[in-house]
Protein: Carbohydrate ABC transporter permease
Organism: Gracilibacillus oryzae
Amino acid sequence: MSDPQTGHETLGRTKRSKSTVLQRNRDPKLGLKVTLGFIIAVIFILPIIWMLFVSIKPNGFSTTEPLEWFLPPYTFQNYTDIMFGSLIFRWLLNSVVVALITTVLTLLITSLAAFAISQMKFRYKNFIFIFFLLGLMIPGEATIIPLYEVAKSLGLIDTYAGLILPMIASPMGVIILKSFFDNVPKEVVESAIIDGCSYFKLFYKIVLPLAKPALSAIGIFTFIGSWNNFLWPYLSIMSETLYTLPVGLPVFNATYSQAYVQPMTANAIASIPVIIAFLIFEKQIVKGISFTGIKG
């Protein structure tokens, strides 16, 4: 039988060793880092809080004291006036539709192109991949004029198709997915082909499910890029009913250049869905950002 006293001594030594390791690994500057991080977080979130408080002030409210923006009176009448008395809601819907369709089409096209370059055998495959790499060296602004001429000749100006189709080409997405598909074990691919699996089934049932982290990262950044895109919608859309938020908000704010409340209410309406989406998909967004920094 084991001695109880010896067992207690062993347990005590184990606890002391664990506490020693924790003390040794404890960052002496942890408190300073937490405090600094908290201060930076407050600095970043303060403009959002100020925007929300200004948006619930009575229309025409003005003050010379910054603190009064956070004090009563409050009203939500501005939200109903802008939602039903302007095109903000239509612009919000346009942004959602364009960003979602652009993201889905981009994921579909880039994944198919990356799979073909990675797993299929055909002539000039390496040249095509180099062509995609060269596409990263050309700034988007340099292609605006020829892109506009092509869209005009195809009748895509001032249409939803004109907003979406030019944005679905993503050389970076093809490169990321191609690198990811290259890491799929060759034994798995070869055994599937020997068993009679077609390239489409190989893509849909084997390769694509393994690429979910890469697809999530590309989808997140494609959606954000489409949501924030200003230059191309500004050039290609003439009708106010087809504006997206990045184009419509400056137009709306220009009519209230001397006021605070109405523009802030419009910006709050545009920002609240994005904030809610970030809170819901925070883990996926963080994983997508971290994934882009990991090789393979």
The two ends are 54 Å apart (CA to CA).
